[in-house]
Amino acid sequence: MAILKNGRNLGKLGDTTTYVLNGKIVTRLIGRSNKPISLPQKRVRLKTRLLSKFLNPIKEFIQVGYEEEGRRLALHAQNPAFAYNWRHGFKGEFPKISLDYRKILLTFGSMPVPKGVQVVVDRDGLLFSWDLQENVAGTHWSDQVMLMAYFPKLNKAIYLTAGTSRYKGKDLLSIFDIDHGEIAETYIAFIANDRKSISNSVYTGKVKW
């Protein structure tokens, strides 16, 4: 998509692209390469496709989860989220590359990570519990829990970005419109009540809903 800047269209327009090179406006035709796609290119394309599919239904969660890191880097939150997980969130070799849910980070920050987390299936959803971590530097009783259940087969996620306070020790992630028997990959994190600090997310296991 081209944008108008100083009276000129910059960017892609039709079969041309216009950009600034050494202070000059350059317009060139967009060509298609006839070269075979290399193995590294195939690997990059597959990882990008898999990660984009995963992040798409959890954009709101990622926006909250990487806001602190995005602010530090002066980037949109989606950018550091994609960059970190593209580097660390995969297993296997091409063409058998897949997401490694244990290594995925849905939130990124300096607050101490939650400890003693357990997840059990409740009648109305997934019940998460955790240690209170009283008197642990960087935590506060009013920190709010963030919960996620991602269903890979459905590419659907249920989540909370502002759950109950840390001092309560547990919270229910209600599950709606998901049939029982589906497998969920689950995560937990904590965020400060003033939204100025957040923990890394912690993978809390695979759960059969």
What does the secondary structure layout of this molecule look like, with pairings?
Layout: E1 3-5, E2 8-13, E3 16-21, E4 24-29, H1 39-55, H2 59-65, H3 67-73, H4 78-88, E5 90-91, E6 98-99, E7 118-122, E8 125-129, E9 144-151, E10 156-160, E11 170-174, E12 183-191, E13 202-208
Antiparallel strand pairs: 1-2, 2-3, 3-4, 5-6, 7-8, 8-11, 9-10, 9-12, 12-13
Task: Please provide a brief summary of the model.
The chain has 209 residues and is α+β, with helices and mostly antiparallel strands. The chain has four helices and 13 strands. It has a four-stranded antiparallel sheet with strand order 1-2-3-4, with no helix packed on it. A four-stranded antiparallel sheet has the order 10-9-12-13, with no helix packed on it.
Keywords:
four-stranded antiparallel β-sheet; 13 strands; 209 residues; alpha+beta
Report on the structure:
With 209 residues, the protein is an alpha+beta fold. Helices cover 20% and strands 33% of the residues. The protein is built from four helices and 13 strands. The strands form four sheets. A four-stranded antiparallel β-sheet has the order 1-2-3-4, with no helix packed on it. A hairpin with a 2-residue loop joins strand 7 and strand 8. The relative contact order is 0.15.
